[in-house]
Amino acid sequence: MTEELYNSYHQHIDTANDIETLRRLLLSVEDSIKSIVGDDPLTFYLEHPAQSFVDDIDDCIGLRTMILDKMFTYSSAEIERIKQVNGLLTDLRKSMFRRTCSLYRTLLAHGTDESFDDDYEIEGKLTVGVEYDSKEGDYGTVQHLENDAYYGSDFAYMLYVIMSNEEEKRYSLGYIDSCFLRHEEGNSPDMTDKELLAIGFADLDDGTSWDECLHRDDLKHICFGHAFHSLYTHNPYSLADIVRINSYDVNVQLVCQRLTDQAGRRYKDIIS
């Protein structure tokens, strides 16, 4: 998308004062995305599209988010869904931290293999888990709500494209939230989650609301967690998208590392 065209869309969005105009702009932007991606987003992204295509899609996604956030009604039903999603993401984030620490303690207690292991990395990631097939649909990973027609978006298709484009553009940064523990000498299996996380990653959900972008009186009763903040503020999902995402993945993995040079020296010998 040329800078001139992007600025033209941006100006039209800023000045649009009625829902019909915003909906027409939304459909136009989504048509632009579909003209690049085609009917099968999975195939498009598996073929590793050119960076220019990814950047054009990213521009269109940003415009789409602007339009949908301007259309968002903040009805009582939508606010309740925001609250539910926030609670779910906060719980998933806590579970990710807890499982990451648990896996590391299991390693410390039972899993070390000094004949192989030089170092360990334990990482948890919380990601959007939307699926889409042009014939089969979204497999229940997207909520279809009573006011879908009000927005007019092809939510299932677009949510999959947003998720995939973020992964393609941001590479390993295409996640909502994460935690990371690195092995250190002296760590023991009786250490608490709090002690382990103090080493690796601070818990940012301390009861203070992360509502820096949602200063509204009708949302003040919600204590926004860091995961919701990250999904909305650091990812290109609109509020209308977020209340429709019906699948999240939490992955916790342990990587056992053996580091050896050509002389056969192990990591401790190399750094000593």
Q: Quick gist of this model?
A:
The chain has one domain.
Question: How would you describe this protein?
Answer:
The chain has 11 helices and 3 strands, in the order αααααβααβαααβα. It has 272 residues and is mainly alpha-helical. It has one domain (75-265, 267-271). The longest helix is centred in the middle third of the chain and has 36 residues, at 76-111.
SSE string: HHHHHEHHEHHHEH
Average pLDDT across residues? 89
Largest sheet: 3 strands, antiparallel
If you compute it from the alpha carbons, what radius of gyration comes out, rounded to the nearest whole angstrom?
22 Å
Q: Give the overall shape.
A: globular
Q: How many distinct beta strands? A: 3
Strand content: 5-15%
Structural class: mainly alpha
Strand order of the largest sheet: 2-1-3
Helix content: 40-55%
| Distance separating the two termini | 53 Å
Count the helices. How many? 11
| Unreliable stretches | none
Tag the structure with descriptive keywords.
single chain; 3-stranded antiparallel β-sheet; mainly alpha
SSE inventory with pairings:
Layout: H1 3-15, H2 19-37, H3 41-46, H4 51-71, H5 76-111, E1 119-128, H6 148-151, H7 155-170, E2 177-182, H8 193-200, H9 226-233, H10 239-242, E3 248-257, H11 267-271
